[in-house]
Write the structure tokens for this entry.
Amino acid sequence: MWDPTEHRLAACERQLRRQRRAIGLLLSGLVALAAALWLNRHAVHPATADARTLRVSELVVVDDRGVERARLGGRLPDAVVRGKRVPRGGIAAGLLIYDATGQERGGYVTFDEPSGNAVLTVDTRGGQVAYLAADPNDGAALRLWTGGHSVEMRADSSGARFTSTRAGRIVTQSPPPSDAEIAAMCQGLKADLARLDPKPPIDEVLEACARRMPEWACRECLGLPQRR
């Protein structure tokens, strides 16, 4: 027997199903439209120069074990050597590299003022062993060392010099420094010492000076007796 109430309920259910399908299609279309708009906004367009530029303050590269292997940054952190933080001596920007243990092994950086130097360094796990630097004007230096042994080349508008040391003492310096150069280096050494508080032991000062000047000149500069 035909029931008008049951007929109306069935018709309502069919209409509800059609509305649900329509709403589903509408929502799918809106999601697709939103995705297309987002992709268009964030896509890299070859014809647009700005879209090809990634502008960041820092970029860190890790290996498949999560160990940091390279860091490119506008303000780099201090180095960590054997678990201890070692100051860089100024604000630096550029690229640092790390080995598989996460130990810093070198970098290519520029320093802010006052030095303004551009520097390329290479390190062992124990510390720095190679240094290539250019100052903001016309000076350049290359130094290789291990322990107390080193070779160094320097050049600027006043000339060039090669220096080698053994056990912390100069064994070769060509050409030898002039009296004016020795006086200038002595003045610079005393100025550096005046800024230090507390003062380092005199034997450490002499050792550092002897890597740049003949020992007799260092002793004369520091007011120490000459070796006999």
